[in-house]
Structure formats: C-alpha cells, structure tokens
Amino acid sequence: MSPFRLTRTLPEDTTDAALRADVHEGLTGSPKTLPPKWFYDARGSELFEEITGLPEYYPTRAEREILRARAGEIAEASGARTLVELGSGSSEKTRYLIDVLTGLHTYVPVDVSQSALTQAGQALAAERPGLEVHALIADFTARLTLPGTPGPRLVAFLGGTIGNLLPAERAAFLASVRALLAPGDALLLGTDLVKDERVLVRAYDDAAGVTAAFNKNVLHVINRELGADFDPDAFAHVALWDARHEWIEMRLRSLTAQTVKIPALELAVDFAADEELRTEVSAKFRQEGVREELSAAGLELTRWWTDEEGRFALSLSVAR
Ligand SMILES: C[S@@+](CC[C@H](N)C(=O)[O-])C[C@H]1O[C@@H](n2cnc3c(N)ncnc32)[C@H](O)[C@@H]1O
Q: 5: which strand partners?
C-alpha cells in the first residue's frame, strides 16, 4: 500500500462559518438561492454516485468514453508527474489517466467531501503501490495551496462541474487555476455541451427520483448543521432549461406557504406557496465559448475531444 495523506487546508470552523454565511445570504435574498457545494455531505456524495449510473444521466458515460479513448494522448501531451483533481468525488474516471501516466508520482484529489476523499484516496493508495495520494479537503473556489510535489502538473476538472459556477465565478476560478500552472503544466477540463432540451432536462429529473433526493439533501444538511426545521416533503424538485443562459437550473418549489426556522442563524424564512429556491445551475457549453473563457483567463486551448455523439467535451489547455 502506498502513502495516503489527508490534509484539511481550512479549519473546520471555517466550513461552518461559510455554511452559515451562504445560508443566511441565500435565504434572505430574492430570489432565494443556495450554492451547490452544500449538497455534498456523505449522503449527498453517495447520491451523486448513484446519479452517475442512471440511464438518463449521460455526462459520466460520455466523459468516460472520451477518457477511455484519449487517455494515452492526454498522458503523452502532459507527461504529468503530479495529477491534481478538483472536485474529485469518487475519482472513478480518473483511473483511466492514472493508468497511463507512466511517470506519475503524486495524485492530489481536492474536494469538500471528506467521506468521498477518504474512500477514493484510500482505495487508490491500496491499488497503486508507489503512487502517493495526498488528498486535500478544500474549496476549489477559494485560493488553493497545493503540496510541493514534482512537476509537470496536470490539473483535471472533470464531470462538467465547472458548469455549476456562474459566469463571473467561472472567470475568477479559471484565473486562479491559471495561477497554479507553471510552464509545462496543463488543465484538463470536462464540459457538458448544449444539446436537445429534453435530453438535458431528463438528465436532471430522472424517473427513479434520485436527483430529487440529491436536490433535497441540501435541506437535510441545513437541518443537521444549523438546527433548521425544513420538511423536505414540503418541497418539490424542479429541473428546467434556461435557453438564454444555456444552463439547467435545479430548484426546490415550496408546496405551501410555510415558515422555516433556522435557530443557529436566529432566522425565520418565509416561503410563499410555489416560491422557488435555486439550488444549482449547470451550464452547458459550446467549443467557442470554452475557448474564449479560457483565453480570458490567460489559458490557451490546445486540444478538444468529444464523445462519438458529441454530448460532452474534454479540452486540454496551457498557460499563455
Ligand atoms: C458533479 S460532482 C463531480 C464528481 C467527479 N469529478 C465526477 O466527474 O464524477 C462535483 C464534485 O465536486 C465537489 N465540490 C463541489 N463544490 C466544491 C467546491 N466548491 N470545492 C471543492 N469541491 C467541490 C463535490 O463534493 C463533488 O465531489
């Protein structure tokens, strides 16, 4: 078994303070919103894994197809000795890269979910003798301090998770990734592509109701962490396509007029009947838009691969 290290870059009370600030700001604003990172406690991470196997949820299968076909080219282009993965979750697809990066010294999975990091990191350390696994509990939207490991570095951001950031957040995020890249390093970015609205909406509103349970999990998190009295059954899961912004929105619709108490914030939040709380956006992309956003952050797109059906793209870019 190779070494497995887990580092928390932020003290636990910072996470607590961030949750309080986000919930306060999001539920007192109009319209009400919550950032998607709070879905991912242990249960939320499990539910997300379940989503990746659903028949309606094509992004994981499409991205896996590209990785299976192109991992060799990616490895050859990057020659990475350190693989950093942002929002790594189960690290399941990452194995395609780890398998072919012959000079790989250290894998650095970065996630807010301690349970996902521990499970995935320990499994990889056990499977790959000689590979150091240094997991970081961190928020990838905050300034990241990476461990001093050998270069070149490949920073992977898979799953289309970049689409969960709003445009201004994406610009700030890409600029911070650019700041992590030295000459010879590269960014491997997974982006879900614009497609038929029905296919998109089904991917976020599956027949078995797993995505609905994932969406409502944020209410369980707030109940547990802040002593709130959300009744998840008093909200309906909503997924809709916003054609102007080219993103999917997940929302929770209040089924009745109700007041939710959040004692840790000394807050009572009124919901009107049918009022909606936005819990996630998932932007869908086109190649030109990805190129432009990367370029605005000082990154140059050098390779672009899609799956056979053109549903999802992986791109490689380097610092300009
Ligand atoms: C959509 S899932 C993708 C997981 C995996 N990369 C994949 O492709 O299947 C998003 C992952 O990012 C993590 N995450 C979400 N927001 C985050 C943040 N602000 N900082 C760090 N991790 C975050 C979640 O815990 C989750 O594991």
A: 134
Return the structure tokens found at 212: 């609905």
Q: What is the mean pLDDT of the chain?
A: 96
Residue 12: pLDDT above 90?
Answer: no
In this structure, the residue with its CA closest to atom 8 of ligand 1 is 159
Ligand 1: residues with CB < 6 A are 37, 40, 45, 48, 52, 60, 87-89, 93, 111-113, 116, 139-141, 158-159, 161
CA 2 to chain centre: 27
pLDDT of 10 > 80? The answer is no
Per-residue pLDDT for 79 more than 80? yes
Question: How large is the average pLDDT for residues 257-271?
Answer: 98
Measured in Å, residue 86 CA sits from the centre of ligand 1 at 7
For helices 114-127 and 42-52, the axis angle rounded to 10 degrees is 60
Q: Which residues contact 271 (CB under 8 A, 6 or more apart)?
A: 32, 254, 257, 258, 259, 260, 277
Ligand 1 nearest-atom number relative to CA 190: 8
Cα atoms found within 13 Å of the Cα of residue 133, Cβ hemisphere only:
27
Give the model's pLDDT for residue 143. Answer: 85
Tell me, what's the pLDDT at 31?
Answer: 97
Confidence of residue 11 (pLDDT cuts 50, 70, 90): low
- pLDDT band of residue 97 (cuts 50, 70, 90) is very high
Mutating to test ligand 1, I would choose from 14, 37, 66 the residue with most ligand atoms within 8 A of its C-beta, which is: 37
264 contact partners, CB below 8 Å, separation of at least 6: 20, 225, 226, 227, 228
- pLDDT of res. 6: 85
